[in-house]
Design goal:
The chain is mostly helical and 86 residues long. It has one domain. Helix 2 packs across helix 3. The relative contact order is 0.20. The structure holds zinc ion. The site of zinc ion has 6 residues, from helix 5.
Length: 86
């Protein structure tokens, strides 16, 4: 794998990302605190955006959400239910 591909991979949060567990823990905590916006429509990732901001990584938000959608994660709780463990 080239250096560039590797760097691109590090920017997309997926279950193979080294910080995935940290992300899922935050997502679970925010979800229990403030709930999920999924009832407002698809692609509501308020808690995921907050988790990524807190983690402070240089994440590619657009590519990460595309990955979530491709794996059944259309809102914060679906990321935990469907994408985690994929
Ligand atoms: Zn939801």
């Amino acid at each position: 794998m080239s250096r560039m591909e590797n760097e691109q991979r590090e920017r997309v949060l997926s279950p193979s990302h080294p910080r995935w567990q940290e992300f899922i823990e935050k997502l679970g905590r925010f979800g229990s605190e403030t709930g999920c916006d999924g009832h407002l429509g698809p692609k509501r990732y308020r808690n995921a955006i907050r988790a990524m901001a807190e983690m402070g990584g240089d994440f590619d938000i657009e590519e990460t959400f595309k990955f979530f959608e491709d794996h059944g994660g259309y809102c914060d709780c679906e990321i935990v239910l469907n994408v985690d463990g994929w």
